[in-house]
Amino acid sequence: MTLWKPVRLRWCSQADVLTAFQIVGREIRNKCRRFDGEGLSQADASELAGRIREQRELVRQLIDSRDGRRVRHLLKLNRKLRRRLLELAEKNGLEGTVLRSK
């Protein structure tokens, strides 16, 4: 049995990854705010779920860094956004299990 080992691509510095994480998070929060007022379609929910996955992949680039506290904090922020999306989807009567499985 082989264990999954994260592969860190050295294309971006840690600061670049953190900046990208913040930008994607801001975009997700803005869209959640907008969809909370307008309503959310399944396509919009799938798009947001994809952006949340992209944000989590950014965190995975930092997993092998020595700053474990920062990684845990970023994962916590990502979980909050994921929960917010699921609540928004359920509020609009969408299938939340489709978003969870991706």
Summarize the structure.
The protein is mainly α and 102 residues long. Helix content is 73%, strand content 0%. The radius of gyration is 15 Å and the shape is elongated.
Walk me through what this model shows.
- The protein has 102 residues and is mostly helical.
- The chain is 73% helix and 0% strand.
- It has four helices and no strands.
- Helix 1 packs antiparallel against helix 2, helix 1 runs parallel beside helix 3 and helix 2 runs antiparallel to helix 3.
- The two termini are 24 Å apart.
Secondary structure: elements and pairs:
Layout: H1 14-38, H2 42-60, H3 68-91, H4 96-101
- Overall structural class, as computed from helix and strand content, comes to mainly alpha
By DSSP, the count of extended strands is: 0
Order of helices and strands: HHHH
Radius of gyration: 15 Å
Strand content: under 5%
